Amino acid sequence: MKDPAKKERVMLQYFNIVNAIREDPFISLSEMSSQINVSRNTISRHLKKMYADRILTGPQISVKPHRNCTRYLYLLQVSSPYEIFQELKTLPHVKNLTISFGEWNINMLTDQMMDFSALKGFQKMIFAGKRYDIFSPPTKYATWEQSFKEIRQELEGCTPTVEKRNIRVLSELHWGEQEWELYRAIRLNVRQDIRPVLREHCISYETYQRWKKTLLDHCSAHTGFYPEGLDSNLSLYALFRTDFTQAVMGLFSLFLTTPFFADLDEHILAVVRIPFSLRGYMNNLIDGMREKGIIEDAHYAVELFT
Questions:
Q1: What pLDDT was estimated at residue 2?
Q2: Do 124 and 224 fall into the same domain?
């Protein structure tokens, strides 16, 4: 898009579409049109373009912690990550698996506690523990230059206060096999056409409607926004030990791209996407948080593939 003014106008419409979906993952095009004052046809065209260019991801869902549904996060350093990746992904309790480069090279989510110390090639465990809820604060519409300027200003004036951790675990989750099939099928995008999913799994529309009605009581929803496209960014994982989770999330929410945070015992895991050329700014931000006492320590890695 060569016309800067047109590009700016379209990007602002993208931003408003993302915010509307973030507020209501199931919002209709008609409701969105009334809300952001853009025609349904334009919204539909923008959505196709945003998904094709990976400017928009999701809305994806993640099950909140329940008494009978807990997720465990493991960050491992192993000697042969590619071989071990192939081995681990066959295990039934492994729900998510990523190879990374940095202070750990295996990032794994499971549905039960597991001992990997006897794993062939195991070297070091950077973190092992319960993963609670996932958070994805809204982003601001700005340039990267404006973003980092505001981050520097926030850091300079930051006086963190100790926060009371409020980790919430819900009562038992009563999903049957059909509900879990629905979750697995649409968890990466709840706005996808549900009809092929229902046909494939022989699930009635009424069952889907009942499940959908309480879905956001049991799951958090996350809509990702990447103005230049997800694939043009470096995906960074940063594990922070901190008593000031809100301060950490507040700083990263000033990024142009959507950050994701996993709440852990005494730690928080941040997943952020930034252009490759701005990798050094991430180091400066982490150093600044250390100097201000916002974080006690930090470990990080770059995602390679999942």
A1: 65
A2: no
Sign of CA dihedral 254, 136, 259, 261: positive
Please tell me the pTM assigned to this model: 0.86
Domain count, the chain: 3
- In whole angstroms, what separates CA 227 from the centre of its chain? 16
Q: What local confidence, expressed as pLDDT, does residue 244 receive?
A: 87
Mean of the per-residue pLDDT values of the chain: 89
CB 38 within 8 A of CB 13: yes
Q: What is the 3-state secondary structure (H, E, C) of 114-144?
A: CCCCCCCCEEEEEEEEEEEEEECCCCCCCCH
Output the CA–CA distances (angstroms, integers) from residue 269 to 52, 57, 64, 71, 242, in the order listed. 28, 20, 16, 14, 10
Last residue of a domain, one of 91, 113, 129: 129
**What is the dihedral sign for C-alpha 237, 240, 243, 249?**
negative
Residues in the chain: 306
Tokens of 186: 């649409």
Report yes or no: 132 and 65 within 8 Å, Cβ to Cβ.
Answer: yes
